[in-house]
């Protein structure tokens, strides 16, 4: 990568090994279930998640939507965080395409939703009410600085869901970042969930794709929903081949991204006009003082001039995300670029 692109881990290019595997991939028509490489990826993904089956989908957004549409009927209510990705950043798809009503509850600083609040939000059996069908959690939590949710917390939400006959879905776009940060297998983190989506195309570097996992019955139904959404792909083994490398070779190294995020955050926090909380995984979110030398727009554009790209979301502040293509030298260069704009 020529620029130091910290806007997201979605910007990651496939590795040379992935490109080679993609070129060599054995393929078939995946709508017929005949692509051996997709089938292998789905099996591998299901194994890693401790679920019966997996379904390769083009994006994390489609994985979440397919899960919600599979679990919920029109008019049902889904409980999810007010800072969750499906609520904030997926174009209102659950309502627009599924007629599902989001019931948002506050995502606390640690990414969790208060258990008591969830319990209160579950509707009783009354014709005035929509039917509460599902609870969705996000791990790691993107808007909450990439914080990982613990296995214990997820288990307690799972217990609550079970007690009330609800489904639990996990948006695990970065579930392996959570697993690596907490030092436990991803399957343990999602054990209480009926379904989980995780992304291959973020820190794991694959060019395209996510996998939705759950029971055989759930995945059978979700496969029809994927088709309805136009997500049934044909010789998708070319993409799945990269995803297999993601799962086999790219998971453990996520620890390096976390270490570099800490180093970058530590360096940035030495700049007095920046307020930078310590990141728990690979996402750093920070704010700049109003009396800083430059405006937020000037900061991003002056960094850009030096070949460093970061995200800026107005009220939400700045975001820098470390990933495979950010090495130690890139961290150093980024810090030097910030100093040039803010302290020189
Ligand atoms: N997140 C993107 C943007 O959409 C904000 C990013 O750059 O972080 N769940 C979570 C928690 C996500 O962070 C994302 C992508 C998705 C789902 C959707 O994945 P894609 O982009 O593959 O549809």
Give a short overview.
Helices cover 42% and strands 16% of the residues. The protein has 344 residues and is of the alpha/beta class.
Question: How would you describe the overall organization of this protein?
Answer:
By secondary structure, the chain is α/β, with parallel strands linked by helices. The chain has 2 domains: 14-249, Aspartate Aminotransferase, domain 2; 253-342, Aspartate Aminotransferase, domain 1 (Alpha-Beta Complex), CATH 3.90.1150. The chain is built from 14 helices and 13 strands. Strands 2-8-7-6-5-3-4 form a 7-stranded mixed β-sheet, with helices on both faces. It is globular, with a radius of gyration of 20 Å. The two termini are 27 Å apart. 50% of the residues are buried. The model has no long low-confidence stretch (mean pLDDT 97). Ligand TLP is lined by residues 8, 10, 59-61, 85, 89, 138, 142, 171, 173, 199, 201, 210.
Rounded mean pLDDT score: 97
| CATH homologous superfamily identity of the largest domain | Type I PLP-dependent aspartate aminotransferase-like (Major domain)
Structural class: alpha/beta
Rg measurement, Å: 20 Å
Question: Which CATH class of the largest domain?
Answer: Alpha Beta
């Amino acid at each position: 990568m020529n620029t130091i692109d910290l806007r997201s881990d979605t910007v990651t290019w496939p590795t040379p090994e992935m490109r080679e595997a993609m070129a060599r991939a054995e393929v078939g028509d995946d709508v017929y279930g005949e692509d051996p490489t997709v089938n292998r990826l789905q099996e591998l993904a299901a194994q890693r998640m401790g679920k019966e089956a997996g379904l390769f989908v083009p994006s994390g957004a489609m994985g979440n939507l397919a899960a919600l549409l599979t679990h919920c009927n029109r008019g049902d209510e889904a409980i999810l965080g007010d800072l969750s990705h499906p609520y904030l950043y997926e174009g209102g798809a659950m309502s627009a395409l599924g007629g599902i009503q989001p019931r948002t509850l506050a995502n606390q600083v640690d990414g969790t939703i208060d258990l008591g609040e969830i319990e209160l939000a579950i509707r009783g059996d009354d014709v005035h009410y929509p039917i509460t069908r599902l609870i969705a959690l996000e791990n790691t939590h993107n808007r909450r600085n990439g914080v990982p949710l613990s296995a214990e917390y997820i288990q307690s939400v799972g217990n609550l869901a079970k007690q009330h006959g609800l489904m639990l879905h996990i948006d695990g776009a970065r579930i392996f970042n959570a697993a690596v940060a907490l030092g436990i297998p991803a399957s343990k983190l999602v054990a209480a969930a009926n379904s989980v989506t995780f992304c291959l195309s973020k820190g794991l570097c694959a060019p395209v794709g996510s996998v939705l996992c759950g029971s055989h019955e759930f995945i059978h139904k979700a496969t029809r929903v994927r088709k309805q959404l136009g997500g049934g792909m044909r010789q998708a083994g070319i993409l799945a081949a990269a995803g297999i490398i993601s799962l086999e070779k790219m998971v453990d190294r996520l620890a390096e991204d976390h270490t570099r995020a800490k180093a970058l955050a530590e360096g940035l926090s030495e700049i007095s006009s920046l307020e930078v909380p310590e990141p728990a995984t690979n996402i750093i979110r920070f704010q700049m003082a109003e009396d800083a030398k430059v405006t937020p727009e000037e900061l991003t554009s002056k960094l850009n001039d030096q070949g460093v790209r970061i995200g800026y979301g107005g009220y939400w502040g700045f975001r820098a995300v470390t990933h495979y293509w950010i090495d130690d030298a890139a961290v150093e260069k980024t810090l030097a670029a910030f100093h040039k704009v803010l302290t020189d």
